[in-house]
Amino acid sequence: MTDPAFRPLRLSDAPDLLAVMRRAEGGLGRLPSEMDLPWMEEALAGALAGGVAIGAFTGARLIGVIKASRMPSVQFQHVLWDLTIAVAPEAQGCGVGCRLFAELIAAARALAPPVERIELVVREGLTHAIRLYERVGFRREGRFERRFRLSDGRYEADLPMALFL
Ligand SMILES: CC(C)(COP(=O)(O)OP(=O)(O)OC[C@H]1O[C@@H](n2cnc3c(N)ncnc32)[C@H](O)[C@@H]1OP(=O)(O)O)[C@@H](O)C(=O)NCCC(=O)NCCS
């Protein structure tokens, strides 16, 4: 795979972001049928307002995204939450996810007011994703039992994880 380039996302990237998210689905909290452009624009705008949103590109083509929003309210301003990461299926397993986290962490370190904590939630069946998150420094903080209902009716626990800068 060509070495990707990374740059902050803009609101105008929302249609491409939506396409990547729909194709990546799998572990995401929404089904492709629940994803539309107004939702994507709102989610991206939320991350751009004080948080981080970064894309991985090969040429002009978006192949991966990571975004996290600044938690509202003064008492939580040091926290980034609602983290989403998605890599296009054909680009998965090539280290793009790992590099997106490096970009997110570097961008978070440069934000003001300072970010001290980054949160995510992952369902326990996504062992490859959990391995990735632990490799970049996230630690498990608990377990939400039977929180994720799969399309076949089975349930999985959701695992909250956090990284401290
Ligand atoms: C999770 C995800 C972002 C990882 O991105 P990535 O670019 O593949 O990550 P990396 O290449 O850095 O590799 C991470 C690990 O996952 C493995 N992997 C990647 N895709 C995989 C897949 N579809 N099935 C199984 N393993 C996979 C890689 O081989 C690597 O394994 P290792 O830890 O043994 O080295 C990507 O798989 C994805 O977009 N999945 C769909 C959306 C999703 O689940 N998002 C996370 C919601 S919490």
Structural topology:
Blueprint: E1 5-8, H1 14-24, H2 37-48, E2 52-58, E3 61-70, E4 79-87, H3 96-109, E5 117-123, H4 127-135, E6 139-140, E7 144-149, E8 155-164
Parallel strand pairs: 4-5
Antiparallel strand pairs: 1-2, 2-3, 3-4, 5-8, 6-8, 7-8
Description:
The protein is of the alpha+beta class. The chain is 28% helix and 33% strand. The chain has four helices and eight strands; from the N terminus they run βααβββαβαβββ. Strands 1, 2, 3, 4, 5, 6, 7 and 8 form an eight-stranded mixed β-sheet that branches. The longest helix has 14 residues, at 96-109. The radius of gyration is 15 Å and the shape is globular. The model has no long low-confidence stretch (mean pLDDT 96). Bound molecules: coenzyme A (COA).
Index terms:
165 residues, alpha+beta, Aminopeptidase, eight-stranded mixed beta sheet, 4 helices, 8 strands, 33% strand, globular, binds coenzyme A
Bound molecules: coenzyme A
CATH domain class name: Alpha Beta
**Domains, number:** 1
Main sheet properties:
8 strands, mixed
Question: Structural class of the secondary elements?
Answer: alpha+beta
Helix and strand element order = EHHEEEHEHEEE
- In CATH, the homologous superfamily goes by the name Gcn5-related N-acetyltransferase (GNAT)
Note the gap between the termini.
Answer: 31 Å
| Percentage of β-strand residues | 25-35%
| Helix amount | 25-40%
Q: What overall geometry do the principal axes of the alpha carbons give? A: globular
| Mean pLDDT, all residues | 96
CATH topology: Aminopeptidase
Radius of gyration: 15 Å
Low-confidence stretches: none
- Strand element count: 8
What is the count of DSSP helices, taking H or I runs of 4+ residues?
A: 4
